[in-house]
Design goal:
CATH superfamily of the largest domain: Protein of unknown function (DUF541), domain 2
Number of helices: 4
Protein name: SIMPL domain-containing protein
CATH class of the largest domain: Alpha Beta
Order of helices and strands: HEEHEEHEHEEE
Organism: Peteryoungia ipomoeae
InterPro entries: 26kDa_periplasmic_antigen, SIMPL/DUF541
Strand content: 25-35%
Largest sheet: 4 strands, antiparallel
Distance between the termini: 62 Å
Oligomer: single chain
Number of strands: 8
Radius of gyration: 34 Å
Keywords: Signal
CATH topology of the largest domain: Alpha-Beta Plaits
Number of domains: 2
Structural class: alpha+beta
Helix content: 25-40%
């Protein structure tokens, strides 16, 4: 009696499972049939603007027989550079120490035999780096010239940027959307279908980086200043848009 009951329960369970499976299949097929036809395109927009700010790296490197002597000489030179930058209107918030190091200098003697000669410390080198944000690009050349005369002997890397690039990026973003829409229109017309609503839109880069372009002329503070060409910054935005295709 117990075995017969168990067999009946098992048969009922299998029958229910098979029925549920057969009932689920039409729903899946129906969902596939209702899936909306779409087209996805990418668009790119570019906008340029003249930079209004520059980041420049300046370093003072001093060498001496002892670390203390090298540090003292370096500190004296860097203090003069900082004071001069302040006198030219550079705010303290726009100056930041970016690299500082004390390194021994070694000399390796050539061994006359097969033995190993350990390197000998013959002096020390102290480097103090400074990153300066220059908001007056017309003064940049003269600033570099004065800094070199006061002891800066390394660095000089310049990156031109914009204090606020929101308006330029917005223009590039609009161009990217227009470019994507034009591509979608061309593709659907060629395929003989009608372009529908926008389903999804995304931006590839939230904050595009500026791209340096060639400058038509140099900006100089004075005739004897370092010639500096600021050029333009180009901001690029890429968008991906998914459109529905009307049936």
């Amino acid at each position: 009696m117990i075995k017969a009951t168990r067999a009946l329960m098992l048969a009922t369970f299998l029958s229910g499972a098979m029925t549920a499976g057969f009932l689920a299949a039409p729903a899946s097929a129906e969902e596939t049939q209702r899936r909306e036809a779409t087209i996805m395109v990418s668009g790119e927009g570019k906008a340029s603007v003249a930079p209004d700010m520059a980041l420049i790296s300046l370093s003072v490197v001093q060498e001496a027989a002892t670390a203390a002597e090298a540090l003292a000489a370096n500190s004296k030179a860097m203090a003069e550079v900082l004071a001069d930058l302040k006198s030219q209107g550079i705010a303290e918030k726009d100056m930041q120490t970016s690299d500082f190091s004390i390194q021994p200098k070694y000399r390796q003697e050539t061994s006359s035999g097969n033995g190993y000669e350990a390197p000998e410390i013959v002096g020390y080198s102290v480097q103090n780096g400074l990153t300066v944000r220059v908001r007056d690009l017309g003064a940049l050349g003269g600033l570099i010239d004065r800094a070199v005369k006061l002891g800066v002997n390394q660095g000089g890397n310049i990156v031109f940027t914009n204090d606020n690039s929101d308006a330029t990026v917005e223009e590039a973003r609009k161009q990217a959307v227009a470019d994507a829409a034009a591509k979608a229109k061309t593709l659907t017309e060629a395929a003989g279908v009608k372009l529908g609503r926008v389903i999804e839109i995304s931006e590839a880069f939230a904050r595009p980086m500026p791209e340096l372009m060639a400058a038509p002329m140099a900006k100089m503070a004075a005739a004897d200043a370092v010639p500096i060409a600021s050029g333009e910054n180009r901001y690029t935005v890429t968008v991906n848009i998914t459109y529905a295709i009307e049936q």
